[in-house]
């Protein structure tokens, strides 16, 4: 029995760089003898797809159209795929910073946001001027990481603020002063060079 229709479980997908997804194609009628699908991407530099299985991998920011055909017909199903860039956020602070962002990875995951990479450089009771003076030291710091889509933070040690800043381009950097410090802190050209 020939294929009369092909549909996807999604007409549009949003992925983040490095993520994978599989489209499910359905053919009608169900009694079709050969349900072999052939998959293709309009731009393999943005979204690569396994031509036999439909497994997609988001390679870089942009948009591509995924096409699925059957071997026995010219019918097609199309899905628009948008690949979002990764948003890199660095938090530098103390226990108040940790308290403020503790649940953020799980909240983002629950909301379906999968393109945010976060790092928290934590040291208890530290003032901004101490973070600046100890910029290249890992002493006392805990580095918490939450990769895109992670349910929570993973802690590591052995990293300085400089190590983390040098890892990548940061889209957002949040530095929290110790709450008991009355010293005003402004972003001077000297301090801007640190960030």
SSE map:
Elements: E1 5-8, E2 12-16, E3 20-22, E4 25-28, E5 37-41, E6 47-49, E7 55-58, E8 62-70, E9 76-84, E10 87-93, H1 95-101, H2 104-110, E11 116-122, H3 128-133, E12 142-146, E13 154-156, H4 161-167, E14 172-175, H5 189-194
Description:
There is one protein chain. This protein has 195 residues and is of the alpha+beta class. It folds into two domains: 5-84, Immunoglobulin-like (Sandwich); 87-194, 3-Layer(aba) Sandwich (Rossmann fold). 17% of the residues lie in helices and 37% in strands. The chain has five helices and 14 strands. The protein has helices at 95-101, 104-110, 128-133, 161-167, 189-194, and strands at residues 5-8, 12-16, 20-22, 25-28, 37-41, 47-49, 55-58, 62-70, 76-84, 87-93, 116-122, 142-146, 154-156, 172-175. Strands 13-12-11-10-14 form a five-stranded mixed β-sheet, with helices on both faces. It is elongated, with a radius of gyration of 23 Å. The mean pLDDT is 87.
State the CATH superfamily name of the largest domain. SGNH hydrolase
Major sheet: arrangement of strands: 13-12-11-10-14
Helix-strand category: alpha+beta
| End-to-end distance | 65 Å
Shape: elongated
